[in-house]
Amino acid sequence: MSPKYHDLMVEIVCRELNTVVSKYRKLTGFSGKISLLSHSLGSVISWDILSHQKQEIDLETKLQTQNGRSNDAFGFPGTKYPSLNFEVENSFMIGSPVAVFLMMRNQNDYSRGDLQLPGCQRIFNIFHPYDPVAYRIEPLIHSTNAKVEPKIITHWKGGFRVKYQTKLWWRKIINETEKAKRNAIMAVEAGIEGIGLLDETEDEDLVQDYANSDNASWLDAAYSEDIINDGSLSQGRRLDYMLQEKELEIANEYIAAMAAHSSYWGEKDLSLFISEQILANKY
User: Fold this and answer.
1) 266: helix, coil or strand?
2) How far apart are CA 191 and CA 198, in angstroms?
3) How far is residue 268's CA from residue 272's CA, in Å, rounded to a whole number?
């Protein structure tokens, strides 16, 4: 949060990234696509770097970027952001507090659709449900997204753990119950209307009121796979992905929270998910 140290960290990280990629390319002849994996505060640093990159750079801009360019949209006014010498296909942020930093900088109003990372094609905000440092990004885009559950990362052996299997089972029951309730109300009202005891316009109002009720809209939003996204960030696709907590962690959430922020490195679910996403567009 201090401009002095913020600029220093961004400069060092960007320089190290360029150095490592250049050496790796030279030693191995690698010419493939590159993804970034950042953890905790590292995700904030990588976010600031990627938010100041450009995919297409004209001659005038290229001359400016040699000495760094200033962009006040993110980070701090007057900050000079160095350029990466490679393009980033995916940015995997794990245990990320990016959302909190954007709010502390008063950069959490994206009603105009100006939330974007021009230096990256797609981002994945991955978190453990008990991680006290990690926060969601999708609700920043639109408040309605807070009602939409994050995407659940499946078990590395496939499927979901017992807790989420039960949750999906209850979800199915609730949806079927709500559907049956709506059909029953419409059937009863249709019968009453058929014998002339209910006005047609009144019937439509009742059905519409039920469809717009808080209960119905909350269910539709909570179980929807879609979010409100203007498409400028992550190609309009989902951003928030949540790991499944283990049964032992569920037994004592407070103890699990103490280790959750550093638990990502041993998660097979996460390793498989990242591998799948990197290879998704290759074949």
Assistant:
1) helix
2) 9
3) 6
Q: Are 96 and 134 in contact (CB under 8 A)?
A: yes
Distance of CA 15 to the CA centre of its chain: 27
Output phi, psi for 252, to 5 deg: -145, 90
pLDDT at 208 over 60: no
Q: What six digits make up the tokens of 213?
A: 């009720």
What does R_g of the chain's alpha carbons equal in angstroms? Answer: 24
Active site residues: 40
Beta bridge partners of 124: 92
The pair of structure tokens assigned to 283 is 């074949």
> Nearest 5°: phi and psi at 55?
-75, -40
CA distances from 265 to 78, 270, 275 (A): 36, 8, 14
Which tokens belong to 64? 């400016």
Q: How far apart are the first and last CA of the chain?
A: 42
Question: What's the CA gap between 47 and 58, in Å, rounded?
Answer: 23
Q: Using an 8 Å Cβ cutoff, are 84 and 16 in contact?
A: no
How far is Cα 193 from Cα 63, in angstroms, rounded to an integer? 75
Per-residue pLDDT tens for 100-130? 998 888 776 555 556 678 888 899 999 999 8
Consecutive H or E run containing 242 = strand 240-242
Rounded distance, CA 73 to CA 225, Å? 30
